Please model this.
Amino acid sequence: MHHLWLIPTIPLAGSMINLLLGRRLPKIAVSGVAIGSVLLSFLWVLNVLSGLGSLEEAHVERYFTWIQSGAFNVGFDLMVDRLTAVMLLVVTGIGLLIHIYSSGYMAHEEGFSRFFAYLNLFMFFMLILVLAANYLVLFVGWEGVGLCSYLLIGFYYLKKSAGDAGKKAFIVNRVGDFGFSLAMFLIVVTFGTLDFGRVFAQAKDMPVEAGVGTLTLICLLLLLGATGKSAQVPLYVWLPDAMEGPTPVSALIHAATMVTAGVYMVARSSTLYLKAPLAMDAVAIIGLVTAVLAATIGLAQNDIKKVFAYSTVSQLGYMFLALGVGAFSAGIFHVVTHAFFKALLFLGAGSVIHALEGEQDMRHMGGLRSKIPVTFATIFCAAVAIAGVPPFSGFHSKDEILLAAHHHAPWMYWVGVVTAGMTAFYVFRAIFMTFFGSYRGHHHPHESPWVMLGPLCILALLSLGGGYIHIPHFLEPLFPLAEGAHEPALVYISVAAGLAGIGLAWLMYVAQPGLPDAIAGSFRGLYTLVYNKYFVDEIYDAAIVHPLRDGSRSVLWKGIDEGVIDNAVNGIGRSARNVGSVLRVMQSGYIRSYATWVVLGSVIVVAAISFLGGSR
Amino acid sequence: MLLNMILFVPLAGFLLLLFFPREQRGAIRTTALLISLLVFVASLGLIPEVRNAPTATSYETNVSWIDYPPIRYHVGIDGLSLWLVILSTLLTPITVLVSWNYIEKRVKEFFAFLLLLEFGMIGVFLAMDLFLFYVFFEVTLVPMYFLIGIWGHDKRIYAAVKFFLYTLAGSVLMLAAIIYLYNRGGTFDYPILLEMLRNGRLALSSTEQFWLFMAFFFAFAVKVPLFPLHTWLPDAHGEAPTAGSIILASVLLKMGTYGLVRFCLPMFPGAARDNAPWIVALAITGIIYGALVAMIQPNMKRLVAYSSVSHLGFVVLGIFSFNQLALDGAVYQMLNHGVSTGALFMLVGYLYERRHSLEIADYGGVATPAPFLAAMFMVTMLASVGLPTLNNFVGEFLVLQGAAQVNFTWAVFAAVGVILSAVYMLWMYQRTFFGEVSEELRSHMHDLSPREWATIIPLVVLMIWMGTATQTFLPVISASNERTLEQTKTNVEFQVNASPSLSSQVKELLNVR
Model:
């Protein structure tokens, strides 16, 4: 026993302390409890991992039966293998940095203890998610992180938009969870268990499905779940709105950890997916479509957090592409490097917003390079990492993905390259609009305190050098390395695309600042379409939300319930009333008389039975 | 002895309260509380013996009540009824506390009726004689009728009469069926009838079985309520006082589903299985329909009432899936719904006591002046929408899993209800608790009082307990359900349709899409 349960439980304890006592504790104690619990959890992860050694085999700990019915049995079981180990380190490590950052960022906010209670609760559920040894416990974490996301998006609950965004996130995720649940039902029907070990052991011996069979259906349903949590087409719409939450939340939950849960889950289920090539193709195509769609939207956004949000959606699409072409370890590799540079981008954006007292519109920024130099330097590190500039972290993981995609289908590689170019463009567009040129706002920018800058610096180092932590090699026992020749030409092309994107951004936003407006003017229709995010929200509203709401009101409630059923019932009542005077007396509306009727009725019945029985 | 005490102490309490002078309100409330607490504690004493033998009838008493016709006072408890009895005994003291200040007029009658109601509820779950069951079934009707009719809101008379006539219409048919069975079998005693049906001494033709099944089924379906017999429920809930709503949702509706499991399945297995397809269709329709109509309700209590239609649809689906998991889930869901919906009605009632309105539009921003009330509401809401580790999830999961094993398409449609539950609940929560609070509302709102804490904490604890440590509750339910399912297989003239293979189901499903 390595007491894996301690890893999630320590943050849970921190959460409970802050939830129950936080209002009475000083802020330093609140943040101390929150940061301390994540630190302890991180240290315990290190302790467990060093105790478990090389982890060739999964280490499983079974605690107690959760649900038992008939032959079906599922327990609260946790496990660690190499995949979990990677996720544990990312979640607790990045989580720790973001907790520290938050103690500075949130220092002047209302609801300080509530914030940290939710953030710790999130750590609890996220750790459950990655430690789970069966699908149902994974689902506990899965729903739990969704709950915390809901609570934290709606953290500023006085604002209607925050409440709306939280609700939207929860409900859209519910659609995904619908798929996840159905997948679980099918897994139980097929394998008789939800235990990872037993499901995958059986699945290994099953044939690869040519058409749509049970495994393919399971995988497609799991994919539906993953598209919800990981913000993929068609369920990505909640993530951009989720930026209503405090910025550290965007960094931790909506960039570095929770949104990668879908990637983790698909990678965890790789044994099933490898038997279902059609589902694999679906994963790859959804990933690719999402990557392109979100990247194009990102080109035209002016809110700094929205740019990074669409970038997250797009990068998650990359990870799905990796999964879909069978490069599971490359997908997880990108999860890790993305956690570094995207957390940094968001925290850096948070530092900018903090400096400008809440300003998020990049049109009111500019020239901040000299005013907040540390923030600029660190965020620049993240930008070069995400743009795929060698030798920084994003280059390594993106390279792995693109090469695997090329091996699978060359056209996927080319779409990926174009997306990489767009990524570099919009990220550097944000950098140039924010930090270059002259300041266009009217606040007095001030650099953030070191409690915020410290985590930025650590993340900057990880963003630059993290690519040399060779995750795919570490995961080789789980996911055989995808073959595919390392053609240098392919690498050069993708790097060139990234550099071209940067150069174009420099041209348009530093060298020729008039150019963007001119371009937008000459492609008015296209620009409007992209600027308005292809009107997807509006389409969903018109096609689903409004018909459902109005139909429920006018057809179901007013029509069927009150119109048909109640009318029929009242009609029966009326006609009965006309039958005779006896019934008219019965329906007199006097309560006491009804009671009398009940008693009298019973007596008559008893008498009648006696009579009938007697004559028999 | 213990069981008879648990049954009759509430009746004695009812009579005792009638002798109190009506102005001694404090003494009346305290007496009602003490009596109901005593019954609750005593009922916990039932657990060990039922745990030991969940399929046997424990604490059996079988004496003659009326010589001729031979109606017997035959009561006992087993794994199916144990937790329902304890749910009833737990909720009675809680509703007494809930009504402590809420009820201002005719205090004496109110608390007396609560105890009479408890007597009826416990009796329903214990009766082993069909006529006795019918009597208890009707006994609950009377106090509930008065609770709505006297202490309800504006349209209380309409709601009370509707409630009364709807249920009476159903139970009259059941009574006719009971009498028919007596004429055929010569006894009202349920175990004897069951044995006669099993060994063929009482052989019902399939036509007879069909009509008897339908009579029982109709009575219970009204009570559940199963779509489309549900329209009394929103009115009853909308008009009832808080305590009435809690008992109605938590226990009285369960008398319907309990009756289905206890009587309909074992006595008429053939008819039950033959008619399962359309009943399941109605259940699934109810799940989705109830959720959609709940979504657009402007009145909180009516919203929760429609959500009950949706939740109870899961229970009926589980019962008529004829599958161990689904039935376990159904019975567990009866308890879960009792706990979480009871808590919802309680919290809505607390909002009402403060603001004197049930319209969602009259609220907004309540989380600011009453953060703990908001927090408790949040936990209850999450339980209700089926968040894992809270109670409802376990029941819904088992029902859907079991249904999926029988027919995957059922699970697909029923699971839509799980999505929708989040829609209506979160929307209501947002409109009630989030946003800026108006000065007018702020002046009404204060956070939970110690008495209110005392009523909600036990339910919240149960939500977590029943959601995680299910082994406390499930094994006895599972065991008795296994027996019930065994009974539905005996003496059935038809063949159990082998459920179609999964791959063919998958194909069918894809074609449908």
In short: Confidence is low (pLDDT under 50) at residues 579-585 of chain A. Residues 536-579 of chain A form the longest helix (44 residues). Residues 330 and 587 of chain A are 75 Å apart (CA to CA). Strands of chain A lie at 59-69, 72-80.
